[in-house]
Design goal:
The protein is an alpha/beta fold. It has a single domain, classed as TIM Barrel (Alpha-Beta Barrel). 35% of the residues lie in helices and 13% in strands. It is built from eleven helices and eight strands. The protein has a six-stranded mixed β-sheet. A two-stranded antiparallel ribbon has the order 7-8. Helix 2 packs antiparallel against helix 7 and helix 6 packs across helix 7. The longest helix has 16 residues.
Length: 264
């Protein structure tokens, strides 16, 4: 089963979306922080990130969910910096040491090469870890990598502090969403992650992911999550499921240790 982004690449839509996302960096509203800085000119906001993506590690990884790691590993790309400041972050050396991470800034071409290198190593997917603040660079790199032969599914492994308009531009690009929902209380989110609007932002983000993917976790005969087919609607079924009007995804979306895997 081929990744969904290939059809967008063939039509030219992938390149158009990359350009649109990059333009958003001129007054950055890529995440719910809405800093408004011009990252293309070197200005930085809360995430301390500029025009280039910061890549801290590129590695086949076996610590993700089994349906992603399989026998050859998930192809993890760990991005540096973050749009949150979690006091308990296990990767704080790369998420909160922005001065040290400046040396890990990479061009779009280098990021595309990293995706292709993971494919050459036999990984089952490209697993983008903490990608939110670098979505424009990722999509631009994906467009380059596809022209050079990338065919792996794309996993969006996020803290769920995502912007709905940006997620809409990822519709048909991301094959699997893997959001790590952290809080149901904004006071706690503000105290421990400096994200006082986390609850509203993350719930809206999860609903958009659900709209794109549906709720079934699908695995193949080897136990791996393959690229999805677009969600199918029965004749007469509303485009927005009644679930969204009730405002909850509880009981409908597969979960693993708090990580949600909407699929298909």
């Amino acid at each position: 089963m081929l990744p969904s982004y290939l059809a967008l690449a063939e039509s030219g839509e992938l390149t158009r979306r990359a350009a649109r996302l990059v333009r958003m960096l001129e007054a950055c509203d890529i995440c719910p922080k809405d800093c408004g800085v011009n990252r293309l000119r070197g200005e930085v906001g809360f995430c301390w990130s500029g025009a280039e993506a910061v890549v801290s590690a590129i590695v086949p990884h076996f610590g993700e969910e089994p349906c992603l790691t399989g026998t050859r590993g998930a192809g993890n790309i760990f991005f540096g910096n973050c749009n949150m400041r979690c006091a308990y972050c296990q990767n704080w050396q790369i998420s909160q040491d922005w001065k040290g991470q400046r040396r890990n800034a990479v061009s779009v071409e280098v990021l595309a090469g990293a995706m292709l290198a993971l494919q050459e190593q036999g990984c089952h997917n490209v697993n983008l870890v903490s990608p939110t603040h670098f979505v424009p660079q990722i999509v631009a790199a994906l467009a380059v990598a596809v022209r050079r032969g990338l065919r792996l599914p794309l996993v969006y492994n996020t803290n769920a502090y995502d912007s709905v308009p940006v997620l809409r531009l990822l519709d048909g690009i991301v094959d699997i969403y893997l959001p790590d929902l952290k809080y149901s209380d904004n006071a706690m989110a503000k105290e421990y992650s400096v994200a006082g609007n986390y609850v509203e932002a993350s719930r809206a983000a999860l609903k958009e992911m659900y709209r794109q993917m549906g709720c079934d976790l699908v695995v193949d005969e080897a136990g791996l999550a393959p690229p999805p087919h677009p969600p199918q609607r029965r004749r007469g079924e509303p485009r927005v499921p009644p679930l969204h009007r009730r405002g909850t995804l509880a009981g409908r979306v597969p979960q693993h240790h708090g990580a949600v895997l909407p699929h298909e």
